[in-house]
Amino acid sequence: MVSDLNEVFSTNARNMKKSVIRELLKLTRRPDVISFAGGLPDPNAFPVDDVATITVDVLKRDGALALQYSPTEGDPKLKDELIAHHEREDGIKLSPENILITVASQQGLDLTAKVFIDPGDPVIVGLPTYIGGLGAFRGYGANLIGVPLDDSGMRMDLLERELEKLGRKRQKPKFIYVVPDFQNPAGITMTEERRLRLIDLARQFDVLIVEDSPYKELRFEGEATASIFTLDGDGQVIGLHTFSKILFPGMRLGWMIADEAVIQKLVTAKQSTDLCTPAFTQAIVAEFAARGLLAKVIENVKGIYREKRELMLASLDEYMPDLPGLSWTRPDGGLFLWVRLPEHIDADELFYEAIEKNVAFVVGSAFHCDGSGSNTMRLNFSFPTKEDIVEGVKRLAKVIENHEGARRATGDVVATP
Ligand SMILES: Cc1ncc(COP(=O)(O)O)c(C=O)c1O
Questions:
Q1: Tens digits of residue pLDDT in 118-129
Q2: pLDDT-derived band of residue 417, with 50, 70 and 90 as boundaries?
Q3: CB distance 212 to ligand 1 below 6 Å
Q4: Ligand 1 pocket member 179 (CB < 6 A)
Q5: How far is CA 96 from each of CA 134, 189, 292, rounded to the nearest angstrom?
Q6: Which fold has domain 5-46+296-409?
C-alpha cells in the first residue's frame, strides 16, 4: 500500500463525500425501527411473475442478442417503446438519436457531470434538492449554488438574481438542475408558470436546464403539468428518466433525452464508463412494455401510494403536536413529503432522539448544498406498511412533543409577545 492514499487520489475523488443518507440509513436498519428514511418503492408492487415469464421468453427467443454486448446508445426496441411512452405521456415525438439508455438515472447524473463540469464551474441547484445530484456534481468539482424553493418550485426571482450575479463576474452556470415533479426531497411540483419562466431565463442567460424526472408518472391527484423538455422543444433541456420508481429499481435502467449533439457526447462518455447498458435487462423491460404491462404497473403503484400518502397525511394531522412553525407538504404524487419544524428545532438532533424511539427520517440539511435547512426533514411513505405509517407517525409526533417539553423545562424558550 502507498504511504498516503490522499496523495494519489485524484482531485475529483478527494471531492467525493460519502452520502450522509447512506451513513444514517445504517442506523435505521435495526428491525425495531420504523423507517421513513429510505426512498424505496413498495416491493408488493413488483411484477415478479410477469418478469419471470418474460425473462424466460426473452432468453428462448433472443438469447444470443440478450446475452451479448450491445450498442452504447441502447437497445433499439426499448428506444421504440420509450418514443411511444413520451408520445403518450408528453405528446412529443422523439427520434432514437435523442435517447440514451443508462444504468438508471444516477448514471445519467454522473454522465451529465462528466461531460459538462470542470472543477470550479458553477451549477445551480434547488434548496433543497436530490442528494444524489449534489454528490454527482460535487464529484466533478462543481461550485454548487443553491436557489430556494417555495410551494410552486424553484424561486425564479432568486434564480434571476443568481444568474445576474454570476453575469457580473463574467460567469454562467453550466446548467440549472431541477426535479420539477413531486420533488425528492420536498414533494413539491413546479407550476407551469415557473417552468415557462425557467425556460425564458435559461434562454436569456444561455444556460442548459437538466430536468430530472423520476416521479412525473406517479401523479395521484390534480392535472399533470407539461415537462420542461416539452415546453421548451428547442434543445435547451436535458431530461433524465428512470424505470426505478415506475417499475422497479433492481434492473438499474433509465434513459436520457436531449438534443442529438448532447446525446452523442454522453454516448462517448458512457463508452469509457461501462461500454453499454446490459442488453439482457433492456430486452426484458422492452418486452414488458411491448406487452402493455408497464402502464398496468404504473396504475397499480399509483393506487398503492395514493392510499399510503392519505394515511400519512391523516396520521400527521391527527398526532402531530400543535406547534407554531410545524407544517408539512401535501404532495399530489411521488414518494415523499417534507416536514418543516419550528426554526429552533434542529432535525439533526431530533434524528438521534427519534432513533432511540425506533422511528427514522432523513435530515433535511443533507439536501441543502449550503448546509441550511436544519429544521426540515424528509418522510417517505411508499415503503413502510400502512400499520407502520400510523405507528411511526405516532412515535415521531411524541419525539417532537418530548423535545419541545424538554426545551420548555430547561427554560430555553424564546419569549413571544
Ligand atoms: C430525483 C432523483 N434522481 C435520480 C434518482 C436516481 O434513481 P435511479 O438511479 O434509481 O434511477 C433518484 C432516486 O431516488 C431521484 O430521486
A1: 999 999 999 999
A2: very low
A3: yes
A4: yes
A5: 29, 29, 20
A6: Aspartate Aminotransferase, domain 1 (3.90.1150)
* Single-letter code of the amino acid located at 209: I
- Which contiguous run of DSSP H or E holds residue 311? helix 293-319
The tens digit of pLDDT for each residue in 291-312 reads 999 999 999 999 999 999 999 9
| Domain ranges for the chain | 5-46+296-409, 48-294
Residue 8 and residue 349 in contact, taking contact as beta carbons nearer than 8 Å? no
Helices (H), 91-120: 104-116
Q: How far apart are CA 417 and CA 404, in angstroms?
A: 19
Q: Which 8-state DSSP code applies to residue 224?
A: P
Residue 143 CB neighbours (<10 A): 17
15 has pLDDT over 90: no
Cell matching residue 138: 460535487
Closest Cα to atom 10, ligand 1: which residue?
Answer: 244
CATH level 2 (architecture), domain 48-294? 3-Layer(aba) Sandwich (3.40)
